[in-house]
Amino acid sequence: MKLRIEDKHEYLEKVYASWLGKLIGIRLGSPVEGWSHEKIMADFGDKEGYLVDYDIYAADDDSNGPLFFVRALLDEEELTTENIGDCFLNYLQEYRGFFWWGGVGVSTEHTAYENLKNGIKAPKSGSVEQNGQAIAEQIGGQIFSDCWGYVAGYDIDLAKKLAAMASSVTHDRCGIEGGIFVATAIALAMQKDDIHEVIDEALEYLNKDLEYYQVAKDIIRFYKENKTDWQECLKYIQDNYGYDKYPGVCHIIPNTALMVMAMCYGENDFDKTLTMLNRSGWDTDCNCGNVGSIMGALLGLDGIDEKWIRPINDIVNASSAIGYLNIQTVSDSAALFTKLAYKLHGMEVDYEPFELPYATKGIRTKEGNITVGDNKLYVEAKDAYKYVYYLSDDLYDARYDPQFSPFLYPGDKVIIDIEGGKNISTYVGDCEGKISFQKQVADNKLIIEMPLRKNVTIHKAGIISDEPYYIKDIQIERKASLDYDFKAYPLDHYGPRYGGDYMSNIRGFVEHSGTWKIEEGLLGISAEHALISSGAYGEIYEHIEWEFIPEQGKEHMLVFNMQGYLHHYKLGLNDDSLVLIEKNKQERIICSYPLVWEEGVVHKLKIDKKEKMLEVLFDEKEYFFPYIELKDLFGITLGKDCIDRTISLSLY
């Protein structure tokens, strides 16, 4: 098949069904991740459907990878393995969130990240030469590779190429083969109607001399000789390809054997395939996520029962270094994957916000119904609302350490194209429970303005109506007006982390690195470096004011225009200078002034955007820097062995 503009909705639905299948599999497998088949059956027996009602599922490594690694296609003019490695450094927090930080030499991704951070470029960062075969052949190269099938646009060779590049950042040998298998199987499944054809053809893109291919073929052989009893195949896998036969915490081969088994015995049936696979044990969320993605691509939305889809409510959360991107929707991310597929084929497409079934954008009701059809969201509820930021009671748990920044800020405005309703009003609730009611309706446009208050973090925004209505479009106008007083600033306590301890978060901020506390201000402590940030892409402001005490060390700087850890500007104290630095993977000093400053005393730094320059006041003395637009994420960064206490921060 060939990707064509006129088929854009059809391709979007295929990607959407595949991505939903991935998320369904993760949600199904998460409660029993790492369990044996015997324990799963003893605890849950033949229970159908989801084993746990997660409601809002916090985040998971299996979905983090596809959401963020494809952003290399947005950020880079030319996609290379090295650039995908840079994507890791740009979007990941150091040593928390995103994936399992189990230690260098234990966790494959942790090992590769440390290599990248220390200047060992991809693909050497994931190679057997660098890390050893056991680390290189764990499961991660496979579980993150669905996205390369989504963006391939029916091009199987392209799916293979992209998956091989991305998997080699962290893995090698069978670890790369797994990535290729998943991506090519998804791209093939979008064009076929039988899972056996998909498996057979996907295997032809693999290295036949490696164990991955040989084990998959062995399971297919067993199936053809014993088609009636999948449990006999499970026992064969346990006896011949079990965890006890392979090194490391989560080797790719045992889990791949289960995946091939479930697809063979599943008879092209989504429910049967995923239920069988989940009951088989081992790395259940990873296996069910990959197979759910392949089956979703094969069967489309019509082949996935609503019982799997509706509990997700179009919500997919993440745990990256970009806090507002940690609150996303399934439909918007599917649209992004699809746009990238067309981009790779030299075409541009766009989509309506409610073009996809189940695209509720995470809007919720306590009573009533929300449905999608004819490119509109139909709301039959007195009160419908959406979380802008999550508090602990909103989430089931703190799996994979999600830290959130709100995706709406004081000063922002939401414009809703609405049809119908009666006695309509809107409201905004902050994290302290304060509700501000508004009523702005003109020409079928409903306007919600985010309130301006010190230390306010928006929790949710909603609509109240006496009669049903349709939402046809939602637009956001971003112009931040923020005022933080950190002398008494709240923490949010999210409960148990994946490792068993408890997670807390400085409200609305994401800690990339270093240690950050609320102690008579926002206290930052760095050994090597430290960075904390908030904000959203597209947010604009014209003035920044920072009151702080540099208690130790030589580098204390404001961050702005931040796209990620590798791409931002910073302005502040650096040794004996007031300096403006551009970071675009490497740092470049744009402008610098000699400056005498003191440790342990309060300093004030103000930045004003003028027509042709930045006017900067440091302790009321004026300096002029080259013009740079103030926008996107903002934060504070510290250099080596620094301690800094921020008293207040304002942007408007």
Summarize the model shown.
It contains 20 helices and 30 strands.
Which key features would you list for this structure?
652 residues, alpha+beta, ADP-ribosylglycohydrolase fold, Jelly Rolls, 3 domains, eight-stranded antiparallel sheet, seven-stranded antiparallel sheet, 20 helices, 30 strands, 27% strand, globular
Give your account of this protein's structure.
The chain has 652 residues and is an alpha+beta fold. The protein folds into three domains: 5-317, ADP-ribosylglycohydrolase fold (Orthogonal Bundle); 363-480, Jelly Rolls; 509-651, Exo-inulinase, domain 1 (Jelly Rolls). Helices cover 31% and strands 27% of the residues. It is built from 20 helices and 30 strands. The strands form six sheets. Strands 14, 18, 19, 21, 26, 27, 28 and 30 form an eight-stranded antiparallel sheet that branches. The mean pLDDT is 97.
Structural topology:
Layout: H1 8-29, H2 37-44, H3 61-69, H4 72-75, H5 81-91, H6 108-117, H7 128-131, H8 133-136, H9 140-143, H10 146-150, H11 156-167, H12 174-189, H13 195-203, H14 211-225, H15 230-241, H16 252-265, H17 270-280, H18 284-299, H19 306-309, E1 315-317, E2 327-329, H20 330-344, E3 364-365, E4 369-373, E5 376-380, E6 383-387, E7 413-420, E8 425-430, E9 435-438, E10 441-442, E11 445-449, E12 458-464, E13 469-477, E14 482-485, E15 491-496, E16 502-506, E17 510-513, E18 515-518, E19 522-525, E20 530-534, E21 543-552, E22 555-564, E23 567-574, E24 577-584, E25 586-594, E26 603-609, E27 613-618, E28 621-626, E29 633-638, E30 643-651
Antiparallel strand pairs: 1-2, 3-6, 4-5, 5-13, 6-12, 7-11, 7-13, 8-9, 8-12, 10-11, 14-30, 15-16, 17-20, 18-19, 19-30, 20-29, 21-26, 21-30, 22-23, 22-29, 23-24, 24-25, 26-27, 27-28
